[in-house]
Amino acid sequence: MIYRLVQIARKNSSVYRVLQRTMATESSKFREMYPDIEPYDTGMLKVSDIHQVYYEQSGNKNGNPVIFLHGGPGGGTSARDRTFFDPNVYRIVLMDQRGAGKSLPAAELKENTTWNLVADVEKLREKLGIEKWVVFGGSWGSTLSLAYAETHPDRVKALILRGIFTLRRRELIWFYQDGASFIFPDAYEEYIKPIPEVERCDLIGAYYRRLTGSDEKVQLECAKAWSKWELKTSKLYVDDSYVARAEADIWALQFARIECHYFVNGGFFERDDQLLANVDKIRHIPTTIVQGRYDLVCPMETAWKLHRAFPEAEFHIIADAGHSNKEPGTQSKLLDACDKYKNL
Length: 344
What we know:
Largest sheet: 8 strands, mixed
Number of domains: 2
Radius of gyration: 21 Å
Shape: globular
CATH architecture of the largest domain: 3-Layer(aba) Sandwich
CATH class of the largest domain: Alpha Beta
Order of helices and strands: HHEEEEHEHEHHHHHHHEHEH
Strand content: 5-15%
Low-confidence stretches: 1-11, 18-27
Strand order of the largest sheet: 1-2-4-3-5-6-7-8
CATH superfamily of the largest domain: Alpha/Beta hydrolase fold, catalytic domain
Oligomer: single chain
Number of helices: 13
Number of strands: 8
């Protein structure tokens, strides 16, 4: 579309100059991430007889504490996650949740629930001697951020939430059963391939039986198919280099096994809409919500419901974005939000 507009505008020099200025102005709104940094502290926190979780700290040792809660569940953190935050101001804490990333044992499902993770975040806060912190979470990270904040509202300075996911049944059906398949039928065909047709009426259940079964070859095949489905649909435009992440055996097993485990258990919530129903507990907390209009993984209906239940929160719809936090408009708005709260 932009190419066609440029071709038309070139026939009129004055229109072309206006278009050039408009495009330059729009592109200047997109922000680059903060520079890469290395942690000044890393460690493993023993949170149960089974689990140890990896954590790290970077940025300003005496700065405003912020914790980054990754997606999935099972996705793990990356070096890029540190760079949403001004390292001169923020004390940046990253944690790999149970079974994810560098945490041990990898892909372990025992003693791995939402409430275990909420307790782990609080245990880490106490270990690091932090009174209150900013909490940043996208996708499943937004789920965990809401669950943590609703459990410990007195420990949260501000919330930065992206790609809102509350793990309601209708959200799971949309993405893993029937909904996003209408937009990505080609990728969906690959996603359902490992599952016999007779079992496709409940794809999450069928995947769970295989991902927790004894056949390691089947486990890995299903883990990669599950992971590729999510990665292919995460951006407005499919990013093949991003999808290639699913080829890593351990990462795919962590991602698919842990996600499926949480989904068949309804997020371990007492009721389907628990996070939305309890939002009154956090409406006093400064909050920014960033949502891609064309997010297929965590469709905008959920973000809209959160916005309606929590009108005090700053709410941003990114008109030309899907699910990923790497898309320019989403990335820029998240950086703005992090800057907004850096002096709390």
